[in-house]
Design brief:
By secondary structure, the protein is mainly alpha-helical. It has 2 helices and no strands. It has one domain. Helix 1 packs antiparallel against helix 2. Keywords: Membrane, Transmembrane, Transmembrane helix.
């Protein structure tokens, strides 16, 4: 039962990683599309989207440094 409680924080982190990456990519794509009509608004959407993607990628690295619950006794 203790293994299940250790796995949950990993699952929550992994959920947020993918939310940040896909949400950020959506913001970048919308920013590019809007940027054709209004350049300032396009940048205002694309830059925060790119920042969210960067945070998601950093969290992938952070997650890779966590010990797996399967490896611990």
């Amino acid at each position: 039962m203790a293994g299940a409680s250790q796995a949950k924080p990993h699952a929550t982190l992994e959920k947020w990683i993918w939310i940040l990456i896909f949400g950020g990519l959506f913001g970048v794509v919308i920013g590019i599309a809007v940027g054709r009509a209004d350049e300032a608004l396009g940048w205002a959407l694309a830059v925060p989207g790119a920042a969210l993607v960067a945070v998601g990628v950093v969290l992938i690295y952070v997650r890779s440094r966590f010990p797996d619950s399967k490896d611990s006794p």
